[in-house]
Amino acid sequence: MFRSALWVLLVAVGPLSLACNEATGPDGLSTDELAFLQLPPGAPPLVVQTASFWARTDDNREVRMSFRPRPGESDSSEFLRFRVDEGSLARRPNGSAFAAVDSILITVTVVDLQRLIVDFQPSGLRFSQSRPARLKIEYENADHDFDDDGDVDPDDEVLEQRFSIWRQETGGAPWFELGTVRREELDEIEGDIFGFTNHALAYRR
Ligand SMILES: [Ca+2]
Ligand SMILES: [Ca+2]
After folding, report:
1. Ligand 2 centroid – CA 155 distance (Å)
2. What is the mean pLDDT of the chain?
3. 187, 144 Cβ separation under 8 angstroms
4. How far, in Å, are 22, 126, 141 from residue 65 at the CA level?
5. pLDDT tens digits for 135-187?
6. Is residue 1 part of a domain?
7. Domains in the chain: how many in total?
8. Strand, coil or helix: 134
9. b/e map 159-180, b = 16+ CB within 10 Å
10. How many angstroms does the Cα of residue 149 sit away from the middle of ligand 2?
11. Range of the domain at 110
12. How far is the CA of 204 from the centre of ligand 1 (A)?
């Protein structure tokens, strides 16, 4: 069965969701119930919108995507880093196991530049429960007016604490929150990835 594998990086902040995961429930949330991370007007574009790498059973591999440097600056800032360590590849999309020494081509594509929704292929690839893949997203370049009321004030800082990575099995399906670690001083969020679906950074409205 073909499934589109889109990972959306959704920052889901919810007015009542003080405890992570608690509010999601078995049915998940609809797209309308989440506010996504957004880039402000004039933000530097990504260097590339898609990148591929060979993940291996016997080695640590990762892919990074960055924004172009701001005008007059030489340093670009990272957007995401996706890491697959030795021993992390568990099952191919067709359900078969990997050989002891084996590899698979992984492609990461930002499919929604406005909301920074990220698609990971091949759909259906599974990672080890004990050694999942790792996804890190930096939101330094994102619009920090998270409540979209025209200023950046303490209200936005409260919302920032509710950001996490959300996943969606396919477009239109409900969203579920991942267990994530947020490092506010670095403007970054990191989460364990057990399989390829849609993912995004968002907060619950
Ligand atoms: Ca605001
Ligand atoms: Ca405000």
Report:
1. 6
2. 83
3. no
4. 31, 22, 13
5. 999 988 888 898 889 999 999 998 888 888 988 877 788 888 888 888 878 88
6. no
7. 1
8. strand
9. bbebbbbbbbbeeebbbbbbeb
10. 6
11. 7-204
12. 16
